[in-house]
Design brief:
The complex is a heterodimer of chains A (516) and B (368). Chain A folds into 3 domains: 3-238, 3-Layer(aba) Sandwich (Rossmann fold), CATH 3.40.50; 245-334 and 421-516, Rossmann fold (3-Layer(aba) Sandwich), CATH 3.40.50.300; 344-420, no CATH class. Chain A is 33% helix and 25% strand. Chain A has 18 helices and 22 strands. In chain B, 49% of the residues are buried. With 368 residues, chain B is mainly α. Chain B has a single domain, classed as ABC transporter involved in vitamin B12 uptake, BtuC (Orthogonal Bundle). Chain B has helices spanning 2-32, 37-48, 51-76, 84-101, 106-135, 139-158, 186-192, 204-221, 223-233, 235-240, 245-261, 265-272, 283-293, 298-314, 316-321, 328-366. The longest helix of chain B is centred in the last third of the chain and has 39 residues, at 328-366. Classes of the chains: A alpha/beta (516), B mainly alpha (368). The A-B interface holds A 15-17, 305, 307, 326-328, 330-332, 337, 339, 344-351, 355, 358-363, 368, 371-373, 375, 392-394, 398-399, 401-404, 407, 436 and B 221-227, 229-230, 233-234, 236-244, 352-364, 366-368.
């Protein structure tokens, strides 16, 4: 039996970290093989090695029985391996066809691109694998799931027989996940070998034939999907039961912390991206906002923080009209934000931790004293955050980039929660952090809720949204289209609201959508 | 503590390594053109350590430092103020006109000239900032254009009107009355050394030191400086953190220009007391090099300015002794800058890696 991929004792070291420690992987020809493990378990490193992006320090790699030593992804592609990255990497303003051939354009005489034969080949490929796509559509007009299909076709177009998919479902709603899994089974039936990285265990059990579990850089097990439950896998992954995000009894009060009335935000083309939104968040309440990414959640946050211009409507914080206030005024009045992208919006990566703790609160005590930054008090307060929120760091003077994602996130959560917020906006608070940090972040959110904090939670993790929220509002094309009770909704139902399917069929959603 | 010492030595290693490399490369150039590098460097060192030449070096370093600080203010916010050249020349010109036209009692006259220079520099630079935030004109383009408008346009068009009488052979502004002259520091220096013959140590040195202190306090210690640095490191995060992005750009450009306005003041209030063709151009561009070499650090920029000034003032001896061509210092300055940029980046990577390692170890140690 020849294996499609065999990795033997692969070891990869990074400064201070053993990313892969004698990892073994055996992928049979024509199977769907999943690699699971929490963040930081070494999954991505292993895939980068397999795809020629990084050389291993030790170990052997065999593809179809022959030993290989990839110097670059180009060599991996030549060996028939294709990678579909976690973040879709397509040029928005090109067509599907142009994106697919980008980098390996078939040419006619004088270097002209042979679009006809490329289109022909694309149709053949997509037809053979049952992946429907129109070659001349602009990528910017496609949904997330369709874009991912383009990525897969792009890889198949180059003749890949072994596909690696890095967390392909991270950005998909349940219905799109089903579509993807259907496509993958089709590919398998056509003889492709598929390697999927994922840490959503039910999905893994649904799609995979064989599962390899990584923990802290080591292979801790290879199991048949038919022989295990999600619980078994979780135990293998973390060595214990997975934490769940559930909250306890309701702490919702009658005091309104934040209310939005008829808030509308326009984009550059003057089209509403936040459309007449009414929303009330009480003290002690967590209001969850569900929605496929890009349906106005980012702009809604911007309207609350003051970074987006509010065209019409009013915002009130503790009964005070803040519609015209600057970001700084709102910050000082107690509007806190945990941004959706830590690196892009939350941190000064090359600055020390204590300066990062001060960011957003640099005009207030303890960070500031009059016109000056109080360095001693800032450091002391950062130490407090470090202790209370379990930020693992040698000291508070190291640069933020040195910390792992989970610890960076704990620092951000800590700086916002210790600043005595009146309303806290949490955007994807546990995205990309490991299970341990996730549990601790959830606990802090629950604690703050019990202490009477009003919270707006935006998350693509539907379990998290259902588990933590007191109320869930569904955002679709800028409007709040449904108000749901998290006690009576499943991720699947939520997914159909998010895509608009449920509203069209049962008319359950109401446009007023307020939390009243 | 050990870590702090280690990071300090890393910080020093980079400029020292680039200096060494620059000397080696320059020596190589000298050998190639048939000069003896040891003799040439020896001449420079021996000549450069004379008191008169040290005074000359300090007088050259002062405007370089101010220019470096002007560039550094921009750099701290990721703004490339390439217009220090135009800002200081225009500031010098307007200050010379105002100073020559008015006569205020004593110290006020001098103060007025300096303040006018700072205001003109600040406004001219602020204009580039305004263009950036209102019209999206990149500040590099904006300041380059404003350089041309200031030097080739405004000054060239107006200078003819300010001829100082008929005897003047070159066009220039009216001589400023003595109340607008900066006192020199000769008395102070002579108290410790000996009589300085024929040289004057400009009082602008004191102004430069004050500017350096103000720079340090504003950028590294104040709330405003925090906002400015945050905007430079991550504009998106700064914005979410309450820093008004557009206002910061304009204010940073104005401050940078105000510092630039002082660059020409050594020539104006301590030397020529008028704006004419004698003053030294090019200080604005040299300031960018000095700021880079000094890593935007108030003390680092001072060392960089002193180093460049030392090379400029000591190189004239090479012409006399004939041991090498004085132009060698231009090559050296270029090489120092290039090697500095490379070694800084290299050291930076080492430091980042070390920090990551330290943090990873702390995590591993504290893991449950």
């Amino acid at each position: 039996m020849v294996l499609a991929i065999e990795l033997i004792d692969i070891t990869k070291r990074f400064p201070g970290v053993l990313a892969n420690d004698r990892v073994n992987l055996r992928v049979e020809l024509g199977e769907i093989h999943a690699i699971v493990g929490e963040n930081g378990a070494g999954k991505s490193t292993l895939m980068k090695i397999l795809y020629g992006m990084q050389p291993p320090d030790e170990g052997k790699m065999l593809v179809n029985g022959t030993e290989v030593d990839f110097k670059s992804p180009t060599e991996a592609i030549e060996a028939g391996i294709g990678m579909v990255h976690q973040h879709v990497m397509l040029a928005d303003n090109l067509t599907v066809l142009e994106n697919v051939i980008l980098g390996s354009e078939p040419t006619k005489s004088f270097g002209r691109i042979d679009f006809e034969s490329a289109a022909q080949h694309l149709r053949e490929v997509s037809h053979a694998y049952g992946l429907d796509i129109e070659p001349n559509d602009l990528v910017e007009t496609l949904e997330v799931g369709e874009r991912q299909r383009v990525e897969i076709i792009k890889v198949l177009f180059r003749g890949a027989k072994i596909l690696i998919l890095d967390e392909p479902t991270a950005v998909l709603v349940p219905q799109e996940v089903e579509q993807l899994h259907h496509n993958l089974r089709e590919l398998k039936a056509q003889g492709s070998t598929i390697l999927v990285i994922n840490h959503k265990l039910p999905e893994v059990l649904d799609i995979a034939d064989t599962i390899t579990v990584l923990r802290q850089g080591r292979t801790v097990g290879e199991v048949k999907a038919s022989d295990v439950t999600a619980g078994d896998l979780a135990e293998l992954m973390v060595g214990s039961e997975l934490p769940s995000p559930e909250t306890t009894e309701s702490t919702v009060t009658d005091d309104v912390a934040l209310s939005l009335r008829g808030v509308t935000v326009l984009n550059e083309e003057d089209r509403p991206v936040v459309d007449d939104v009414d929303l009330v968040i009480h003290r002690g309440e967590i209001v969850g906002i569900a929605g496929v990414e890009g349906n106005g959640q980012g702009e809604l946050i911007g309207a609350i923080m003051g970074t987006e211009h509010v065209e019409t409507g009013t915002l009130e914080l503790m009964g005070q009209d803040i519609t015209k206030w600057s970001v700084r005024q709102r910050r000082e009045a107690g509007v806190g934000l945990v941004p959706q992208d830590r690196h892009e919006e939350g941190l000064l990566l090359t600055a020390p931790l204590w300066e990062n703790a001060a960011l957003g609160h640099q005009t207030q005590r303890p960070y500031a004293k009059g016109w000056w930054i109080d360095r001693a008090a800032s450091r002391a307060h950062t130490q407090t955050i470090r202790k209370r929120f379990g930020v693992k760091t040698p000291n508070v003077d190291v640069a933020a980039h040195a910390l792992s994602g989970g610890n960076q996130q704990k620092l951000i959560i800590g700086r916002e929660m210790t600043a005595d917020p009146k309303i806290l906006v949490l955007a994807h608070p546990t995205r990309g952090i490991d299970v341990g940090a996730q549990a601790s972040v959830w606990q802090k959110i629950r604690d703050a809720r019990a202490d009477g904090l009003a919270t707006m939670l935006i998350s693509a993790d539907l379990e998290e949204l259902i588990g933590l929220s007191d109320t869930i509002l569904v955002m679709l094309r800028g409007k709040l289209v449904a108000k749901l009770d998290p006690a009576n909704v499943t991720p699947r139902q939520l997914g159909s609201y998010m895509t608009g399917a449920a509203i069209e069929t049962d008319g359950n959603g109401s446009a007023d959508g307020g939390a009243e | 503590m050990n870590n702090r010492m280690r990071s300090a030595s890393l910080a020093l290693a980079a400029p020292l390594a680039s200096l060494l490399l620059a000397f080696l490369l320059s020596a190589l150039v000298l050998v190639l053109v048939g000069s003896n590098p040891l003799v040439a460097f020896g001449d420079m060192l021996e000549y450069g350590s004379r008191l008169e030449i040290v005074i000359d070096m300090l007088n050259r370093a002062t405007p370089l430092y101010l220019s470096g600080i002007a560039a550094a203010i921009g750099f701290r916010m990721n703004l490339f103020n390439i217009g220090v050249e135009g800002q200081y020349q225009l500031a010098m010109f307007v200050a010379a006109v105002v100073g020559g036209a008015l006569a205020l009692p004593g110290f006020l006259h001098l103060l007025l000239i300096l303040v006018v220079a700072m205001i003109v520099g600040g406004l001219w630079s602020g204009l580039a900032g305004l263009l950036k935030v209102t019209r999206g004109v990149n500040e590099v383009i904006g300041t380059i254009m404003l350089n041309f408008i200031a030097i080739g346009g405004i000054i060239a068009a107006l200078i003819g009107r300010f001829r100082d009488g008929e005897i003047s052979t070159n066009s220039g502004t009216k001589l400023i009355a003595e109340s607008g002259w900066m006192p020199n520091l000769n008395g102070f220096v002579e108290a410790f050394t000996r009589d300085i013959k024929g040289r004057q140590l400009s009082g602008m040195l004191v102004v430069a030191v004050l500017v350096g202190i103000a720079y340090h306090l504003t950028i590294n210690r104040s709330r405003f400086g925090f906002d400015l640095r945050a905007s430079g490191l991550n504009p998106m995060a700064a914005r979410s953190g309450g820093v008004p992005p557009k206002r910061m750009v304009v204010v940073a450009m104005v401050l940078s220009g105000a510092a630039a306005g002082l660059v020409g003041m050594v020539d104006l209030v301590s030397r020529y007391h008028r704006y004419d063709n004698n003053f030294s151009p090019g200080l604005g561009f040299a300031g960018i090099a000095v700021a880079l070499l000094g890593r935007h650090h108030p003390v680092g920029v001072a060392f960089a300015a002193l180093l460049f000034a030392f090379m400029d003032s000591s190189s004239s001896i090479l012409q006399v002794t004939g041991s090498a061509s004085p132009e060698i210092v231009i090559i050296m300055q270029g090489v120092i800058l290039l090697t500095a940029v490379i070694t800084y980046e290299y050291v930076n990577q080492i430091r980042q890696r070390e920090e990551t390692k330290m943090a990873a170890l702390a995590t591993a140690g504290g893991a449950a």
